User: What shape does this take?
Amino acid sequence: MVDRGASALSLPDDWPAHPEPILALNRMGSFDWDLDAGLFHMDARAHEIFDLRPGEFDGDPESLADRVPQTEGLRLDALVAQAIKDGRENYGAYFRVRRRDGTLRWTHTQGYIRRDGNGGRPNRIVGIVRDATEELRELASRDGRATPAQEEIRPRQGNVVQVTTAALAHARTVQDVIDVLKDTHGVTHLGATSLVMGLVEAGRIRLIAEGPEGSFVPGTRVTRIDEPYPMSEVVRTLSPRFIESPDEFAQGYPILWPHITDLDITAAAYLPLIVQARPIGAMGLLYSDRRGFTDEERDILVALGSSIAQSLQRAMFYEQEKDIAEGLQQAMLPRTIPSVPGADVAVRYRAAAIGGAKGRDIGGDWYDLIPLPGGRVGAVIGDVQGHDTHAAAVMGQLRIVLRAYAAEGHNPATVMARASVFLHELDTDRFATCLYAEADLATGVVQVVRAGHIDPLVRSSDGSCRRVPVEGGLPLGLSAEFGRLEYPVGTIELDPGHTLLLCTDGLVEQPGTDLDDGMQTLTALIAGGPQDVRQLADLLIDEADERGGDDDVALLVLRRRGLDAPQTGGRLQQHVAPGDPEALAEARHLIRAAVRAWGAVDRADDVELVADELITNALMHTEGAAIVTLRVLGGAERRLRVEVEDTSSALPRRREAGTSGVSGRGLMLVDLMADVWGVEARGGGKCVWCEFAVPLRH
Assistant: This one.
């Protein structure tokens, strides 16, 4: 046994009694690795090979990290693990050891794997280590052939190039490229200590990867191409620069060298990143455990630089397109949301992260809020098919026409039908889902039309939340194509303190769940969320961000305030088509809801009955539709005015009804129940109106 003073650890009892003379004659050291205890025993000669002094090694294999470069250690660990996995009894490998003075020496090891008797579990490795530097040098100089160590590393280097190139194929942004290169499977497996990289922009080089943390050189964030730096040089010459020693670095770049002497750089490889004969940047690999580069290593690095350049160009193009797309979408979405008296509003947009990419993608989701006369507001949420600039362009056009149709005074069903015809007539194959809600904030009555979109949700003032089913029509663009432009109008009563939430399906759909499950999850999240609409919107978008997903999210939240809602000036208008009993019933419902919301509960029955009579007369005695309008008038006393317009210029006549007649009582009823009534000419038609005195709300 060799000098036990080299290690305070005791060697196993079955260690050969006197291996020292044989090993010493061959300049070999021995080791015994106890896999169960995790202890690595070495003799004195092995300590010398690793350049360890007595007491410096405590038996923990991790303690050898200062002597074995990280890339070498990883390679040895992988080799031993593979040998154990394959059931082999031994293994051998060349690797490099960093000595105390920083120089690297080639070392060779052979290990014998011992296993226990219970299933052949490995529990111990014994073997030898020896300095192989001179041996490899002699082999290399004898016939110019690659040494065994070089033969061993060559496929590893080639594999790194293949793995890195494959990983770069999935990089979409410049930061993705940098992350791939800094990954454990990146260029650091070629032995490099760190990476620096810069991009050429307007005749300058902008640094995008700075090397080791804390190693930034002042004044190099942006440099000119004619400055005396290695990256500038390779960009100017379009040729790689291999620096093989610290002295060469110091002499060639005296301005840069003093700032990096503490990094223990022993060699460096700077590569121009060239695409189509044009430099787009430069990359530097810094080494702290080598001197010089073989011809093969240079060829491998140049090939790697070419692959990196191609990936960088793709990433730069992607980011440019993404910036253009995002700018287009931001231009298409409303710059600001108007203040709405009587309501709190919050809107949010989140672009999709397609394919799990860190960058965001463009989409066709949008929201809009449209102020309308009489204290009303139109809320729009929609989603154009696709995730590209074309989807964003279509979205912008749809947003504009929907706003225009609503501002012209068309009812919600007409707004949606016209938008569908518009999209159908565009030169596009895209369709869109959409939901348009026209809310009268004075009454709380919300008229909703839905074109293939998901239903709205309403949260009550007590926090409960529910999905509101709304009968819908086909998506925009398809309804015109199939000749089905009917969009039924649903009605929601939004009481003070209630919140209306409109969203696109990106907020609802979750991988592995159906739409109903997603809506239930969203409903529960809203019910437990904050009352403030902005905080609630932030919560929902944060949840969408955390969940990820490959679809955009557009969100509009509107909460009706109660205390500061307008006391006068409320207005409600409804279009009633002839031969449509549902439209008449809906008009009655809206009238009753509006009258109650305006604080005229005591007169709700009277107003509903008179309005119903006027509408029925218009439908029976004219050939067109009727338009009923309710509004609150201020002044010395508060009055509620009902107007029913039709297209006939014939004035109504008051008639006496017979004992068995079913008609003739209409105007008598109006005269009896209303405080005042009259008839006005309106263009080619007329308007029959009546007014009711209603008490002020307290």
